[in-house]
Design goal:
It is a single chain. The strands form 2 sheets. The protein has a 10-stranded mixed beta sheet with strand order 1-8-2-3-7-4-6-5-9-10, sandwiched between helices. A 4-stranded parallel beta sheet has the order 11-14-12-13, sandwiched between helices. It has 12 helices and 14 strands. Strand 12, helix 10 and strand 13 form a beta-alpha-beta unit. Helix 1 packs across helix 6 and helix 11 runs parallel beside helix 12. The protein is of the alpha/beta class and 373 residues long.
Amino acid sequence: MHTTLLPSTPEGIRRAAEALRTGAVVAMPTETVYGLAAIATNDLAVAEVFRAKGRPADDPLIVHLTHRLLNDAEVVRGLVRLGLLDPTLGPRLADDVAALATCWPGPLTLVLPRGPAVSDLLTSGLPTVALRIPAHPVATALIEAVGAPLVAPSANRFGRISPTSAEAVLAELSDRIPFVLDGGPCAIGVESTVLQPLGAGRSRLLRPGGISHAQLHALLGAPPEPPEPRTGPAPAPGMSESHYAPRTPAALVPPLNDWTAADWAHLRDRLSSTPRLAWLLFSDPPERAQENTTTQLGAPCAARTLSLSGSLDEAAHHLFRQLRALDEHGAELILIERCPDERGIGAALSDRLRRATHGTPPLFPSEARPLSR
Ligand code: TXA
Ligand code: MG
């Protein structure tokens, strides 16, 4: 199947909407990452999303909509009217949804009791559905041109790095999907926060993202709780540990600034021969890692920096693009600096880096921490 890149002009959006209406899938930009869209009520199209991504059927999708699709009504009423939300939702949960919906449009996904228009296929049989109103003018225009909610998981092959540009979507799904709508690079660069409100201010934070723990605490009047601990040996739907992963083995390491001679000696011990290394740095200039590696290991290396000014928002914006670039660089091992701050967007960065490095044995005991889910 040939993949056509459509510009995000009115004509490009019209063609993308027409393709969606005929049951095809289309990759679209959002403010977080690119999503692979299909009409949420078309099970054949939704099945095609799972196929194109190679995504297991037990990993549910997010339904994307706009305020206009809600008829600009109050959010809870609008969601019920569209058949997305359970009409028997109690007032305590409804109040929390109304408070959280002030983040919409934006990088917040709410997991809520599902309504009658939601199929088992898109929720993997769960009694809940994930809902989000994205804040990207092209996504909004596309959803409104179609006139119906769209499912959109990140437009990558299952388990791999999420795409933050149309080129990255092509690198992942070229020849597997008919259209990519090009909206330029994604502003935020990491996926939405996924939150399950439970009513009366309680909630579970299922995935950290663009809306921070502190923001959610302020909106609900109580801090979100961690996801429910695992009960059985198999992860719950959609909760696999290895995710956002480069093909190249990658390991978290302490910030380069803190490295002592003992750390370099430890690394030399852990690496039997000297592999071709690459560094992903938060704010140190690439030359610093390159000079140190040459001095300490006698080998050159590639290096990329996420934000020379030390901005975590900028780091999030560049994270997946730089990780993808290093993955294509031909290194045998990527050393990734631990995120210097776990607050705000730092929680999302840290989560993505821990999942990206999950498949490689830790090089430093200090970086071996269990994933929350
Ligand atoms: O920013 C984003 O959220 C992007 C853009 C395209 O909107 N989408 C995205 O979708 O990241 P995806 O499919 O890659 O991640 C959705 C996450 C998965 O971890 C999935 O398991 C979880 O949301 N999820 C979906 N429905 C759920 C449900 N009913 N209960 C619990 N988790 C759910
Ligand atoms: Mg994803």
